Amino acid sequence: MKLKRGFGLLVLLMLLVFAAACSSDDASSEGTEDETETGETTDGSEEEATSGEPIKIGVLASLSGALESYGKQTKQGFELGIEYATDGTNEIEGRPIEVVYADTETDPKVARQKAIGLLEDDKVDFLVGSSSSGDTLAVLPLAEEYKKIMVVEPAVADSITGKDWNKYVFRTARNSSQDAVAGAAAIAKDGVKIATLAPDYSFGRDGVAAFTKAAKDLGAEIVHEEYADPTATDFTANIQKIIQSEPDYLFVIWAGANSPWNQISDMKLQEKGIKISTGAPDIAALSTMKELVGMEGFTVYYHTLPDNEINDWLVEKHQEKYDAVPDLFTPGGMSAALSITEALKKTGGKVDADELITTMEGMSFETPKGTMTFREEDHQALQSLYKIRLEEQEGVDYPVPVLERVLTPEETAPPIQN
After folding, report:
1. Per-residue pLDDT averaged across 55-69, rounded?
2. Which of 262, 267, 261 is CA-nearest to residue 280?
3. What does the alpha-carbon distance between residue 131 and residue 63 come to, in Å, rounded to a whole number?
4. Where is the stretch described as Disordered (predicted)?
């Protein structure tokens, strides 16, 4: 009797163990399904986890101060770039795009503080910016520290993709060396004597260094380098030194509202036999260059120069939205947006920095200036620039940049300096 009772208990225990095992298997199966839905486990979970979550982009720009016009152009171009890339949905791979703008006030300390705020408080996935090379150089280390992609636009200092570069930095803006190749191509040749004028900070000094090398390679002689306070309003002493050096050309590198053009005109350099050359600036600055009609130079962009569908769309939309044509740095803002959206399309909306770096290195993408390509070695975007002549045009109250020829991405490719 005891044997039967013992056998019965053993069978009961076995049934209980089997039932518990089945229950555990079912629960495990249910848990796996739940986790798959929330994206916490299983292959492809990251895509499911991020689906519907916003992609946040922090844009640093000079929205006040000396470079305010440049910052606003970048902002407008970036907004239009997102609109173009998403067909107006403001979504990539099912993820809404949120853009947070921060005013650097053209102050490197402020730029760094604002960037930290974007990274820590707003939790942005990308940084973009900024209008000033000084601001940008202050922020570059943060991209590496926080492991976030930073797309540099429109700052041009060579050191950004040179000695101060890190692998998280990509630049859609052209750099000083690209400007230099274009500027030298316009005026430099054997026996030509050239003086330079530039602001006394990284943008100006890097630009002059790059121009000097390119001009000397073409046989020109640099007879004087003049650097002015970037906040100056009186350039008399600077220009007098240039006149004393007796150059054939004065090549000017400048950015900001306090430009030297009026004083260059007032001091009658051209009547003294000194021809002026520069990169044709934004429309506001072109309005101060009426005395320079006939000048040979280059430009980053003027809305009539590129011949492609994206630029046509940009000109039409910008005119419709702002009742004005896009200006010098508007297409750069758009190009920065297009580079990010193109990369996100390729990663399926994933924002992992390592995957983005692999995706973006060597990536080509279409912009208002045509095809750009991020060079693998330093992440500098290779791009077209334009050799131009300033001419009068009926109905336009400033000298208009007229195309002489497109300088190709291969032709303007800068040296690798990182």
Report:
1. 95
2. 261
3. 9
4. 26-53
| Claim to verify: residue 235 and residue 341 sit in the same structural domain | no
Same domain, 164 and 181: no
> Do the Cβ atoms of 119 and 58 come closer than 8 Å?
yes
Q: Given this model, what pLDDT does residue 235 score?
A: 96
pLDDT band of 50, cuts 50, 70, 90:
low
Mean pLDDT of the 105-130 span: 97
Q: Which domain holds residue 66?
A: 54-174+305-383
Whether the CB-CB separation of 277 and 251 falls below 8 Å is answered with yes
pLDDT at 28 over 50: no
> What are the CA-CA distances from residue 176 to residues 150, 153, 380, 403 (Å)?
19, 13, 11, 21
- Among 36-50, 151-165, 173-187, the range with the most confident prediction by mean pLDDT is 151-165
Assign residue 152 a region (left: φ > 0; alpha: ψ between -120 and 50; beta: otherwise).
beta
Same domain? 260 vs 333: no
Q: 3-class SS at 367?
A: strand
Residues 150 and 242 in one domain: no
276/401 same-domain check: yes
Amino acid letter, residue 7: F
pLDDT at 35 over 80: no
Q: 38 lies in a domain? A: no
Residues 6+ apart with CB under 8 A from 97: 54, 55, 57, 82, 86, 90, 91, 341
Assess contact for 349 and 383: CB atoms under 8 A.
no
Tokens linked to 61:
């720009």
Distance CA(289)–CA(275), nearest Å, equals 13
Number of domains comprising the chain: 2
Summarised one tens digit per residue, pLDDT across range 358-394 is: 999 999 999 999 999 999 999 999 999 999 999 999 9
Inform me whether the pLDDT recorded for 16 exceeds 50.
no
Instruction: Kindly state whether residues 325 and 398 are assigned to the same domain.
Output: no
* Residue 46 confidence (pLDDT): 46
Say how many CA atoms lie within 13 Å of 358 toward its Cβ. 7
